[in-house]
Amino acid sequence: MADRRALVTGAGGFIGHHLVRFLKDKGYWVRGVDIKEPEYEASSADEFYVLDLRVPESCDVAVKDIQDIYHLAADMGGIGYITSSHAGITLNNTKINVHMIDAARKFGAERFLFSSSACIYPQYLQRDADVTPLKEDDAFPADPEEGYGLEKLYMEKLCQYFTEDYGFETRVVRFHNVYGPLGTYDGGREKAPAAICRKVALSQDGGEIEIWGDGLQTRSFMHVDDCVEGIYRIMQSGYHLPLNLGTDELISVDGLVDLVSAIAGKRLIKRHDPSRPQGVRGRNSNNSRLREVLGWEPRIMLAEGLVPTYHWIAKELEAPAKAPLAAPAVAAE
């Protein structure tokens, strides 16, 4: 694929950084773009542009001479952030997404993949911890999470319209909670697995760990290695409609804490705070369509993927320069 040129937006972030490396290993020439450079290691991209994709001219620069666009750039974070910044998130991501897909078509890109989210799914289907796994067709009648979920759903439809009206090749991936090494673990935008790993690593054996909610809320979690492979497979497919990308291994937040504590060899007392944001009661991925389209689904079990994730975060926290910022406690997207 040495003659194939790919763009990864959000390449300074967690998934984008891993995706750049995955594509380079596949032989692609890769341009990375983000408003910031990667935090934990240098990008392996052939070119890395620091650009603000809310600005149309920046999108024009980003997409020039590119064939495959993996559009991951977004203003996002954990539940504490996405429930407190509806206006900013919606405005920023709408600008980024609209300008990017418009520039991609205008400059002749061949394929455009948009990273959506399970946050688009109706809240009325996620009120039970023992949730029925969510199918792609469940998105309507719509009742997405405010702000972040709503703007993701809007962009999914815009991708559909670009394909139907202009013949522009689009792909839509609905992520279900991604975790792994080299991801944000402090500062307020981290997701539940990273936040829990951080808090366990900083806790003394026999000490307390604070959890938002009662700990019974459930999610499924996908390792970043499975995520980037799934993204690539979906881009190679001819499938234009949204696809879930996640595992169907449902676990409670308390169960997640127990897994990480066991990896760390610590016994911790859970202290729950039901007054803090905790998101929907339950969320899980139905992978039937993913298996049908790709003949593949994520394979790394949570107990396996959390081991390198925990040890990477624990090692980061040992370095004085990596002392954690003041951050929210454990939460789930």
Automatic annotation (TrEMBL):
The protein's matches in InterPro entries, at most eight in alphabetical order, are given as: Epimerase_deHydtase, GDP-Man_epi, NAD(P)-bd_dom_sf
Originating organism? Methylobacterium gnaphalii
Keywords for the protein's UniProt record, in alphabetical order: NAD
Q: Which residues form a coiled coil?
A: none
Its taxonomic path starts at: Bacteria, Pseudomonadati, Pseudomonadota, Alphaproteobacteria, Hyphomicrobiales
PANTHER family in the record, alphabetically?
EPIMERASE-RELATED
Residue ranges occupied by any NAD-dependent epimerase/dehydratase domain in the UniProt entry = 6-237
- The superkingdom listed in its UniProt entry is Bacteria
Report the protein name in the record: NAD-dependent dehydratase
Cite a single GO MF annotation. Answer: NAD binding
